[in-house]
Automatic annotation (TrEMBL):
It comes from the Bacteria. SUPFAM superfamilies: AhpD-like. The lineage of its organism: Bacteria, Bacillati, Actinomycetota, Actinomycetes, Pseudonocardiales. This is Carboxymuconolactone decarboxylase family protein. Residues 17-96 form the Carboxymuconolactone decarboxylase-like domain. It comes from Kibdelosporangium philippinense.
Amino acid sequence: MEARFNLFDNELAGKFGKRFANTATVLQQSSLPKTTQELVALRASQINGCGFCVDMHTKDAEARGETSIRLNLVAVWREATVFTEAERAALAFAEEGTRLADHHQGVSDETWAQVRKHYDDDQVAALICAVALINAANRMNVIVRNPAGSYVPGMFEH
């Protein structure tokens, strides 16, 4: 399987990609836990059907020490006992922030209250930006049908 269009070989897309990666670096340097960032990225990618990003964020999370049990349960996190209250709030936020068309007013007041309970202002800002960023990445990869399976952890780091 090949992508319809190689975003990595196109000059304009390459310039955009570098700036996109710099944006991701800002989030990685935030105080939002790396585990939470990966769980959020994985859940949004599952919802959006982005195989490339599911592959990437599963492998990146594993490389950082995440367990296969938790990664396998992200899609059914509501029924799983392996996530903290803070992670559950972030996962609910990721789902609602990804499924905007399904929610009249976007993120519910209940989910927002849980996020505010567990995260400080900088972490909330990072969470908002992380959901927006992964949704953009998902859309680019799904549009070009970027295949999953070949990602190696760290391959996009400078």
